[in-house]
Every structure is written in C-alpha cells, then in structure tokens.
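SEQUENCE-TO-STRUCTURE ENTRY
===========================
Question of interest: how does this chain fold, as expressed in backbone structure tokens?
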Amino acid sequence: MVTPIGHVKTRTDAWTHGYGTPGEVTLNLRDALLGIRRGVRDDKHGWMP
C-alpha cells in the first residue's frame, strides 16, 4: 500500500533516506488510505472499488 524508502543502494553507492524510518507524510498517507480501506473514512475520490 504505502511503503517508506529507508535505504537506497546502487551499484556504486548506498545511503539512508531520512533516518531510515517512515516520516510524517508517509504515516499520514498510510493512515488515510487504511481508513478508507477499512471503511472508517469516506472515499471521496472513489479509490476503493
């Protein structure tokens, strides 16, 4: 559903994004989408069939 990016690795480099934990925006978006999915928040945009 919503997955935070904590660590990025390429062939030649690697780094941690933020502190490696979900940020405020990610957590708010996940809470909103889970609320819609569980039926406790209105689906104003018709995201769930």
